[in-house]
Amino acid sequence: MIKLVYCSRRRPDLSVEEFSEYWQNVHGPVGARIPGVRKLVQSVSVQDDRLTPAGAFDGMAELWFDDIDALLRARRSARWRASSEDEENSIDPDSAACGALPGTHDELEVVKLESSGDKDLVRGTTGTRAASKHG
Fold this sequence. Notes:
The protein has 3 helices and 7 strands, in the order E-H-E-E-H-H-E-E-E-E. The chain is an alpha+beta fold and 135 residues long. The protein has a 4-stranded antiparallel β-sheet with strand order 2-3-1-4. Strand 5 (108-116) and strand 6 form a beta hairpin.
């Protein structure tokens, strides 16, 4: 599996509520019809300055595919083009960031070893790193 992850900000003329409504109820279903999409996850940012810095992304989407070839086939489809064209209705085109990542449900495993302050060791497919227990 591979997942394509997008982080985007809403258009400046849209309120958080308008963005969320359109992005989840109109744009999401357009994206879900892209051929080869196995899973679509949309998350809207928590609007709280204590958690989300000013200028942070308003939404994150994950599109899951069987493999890179399935993703590349999808990108050539009319439904991909339709989804891309629909983005202008809610997303600030200068804000989008995108990346392709391995799409496994067990990417990281928390290993209960000796704790270092508020950190545990986390083992993933690309090695070991420290991660905060608090988020």
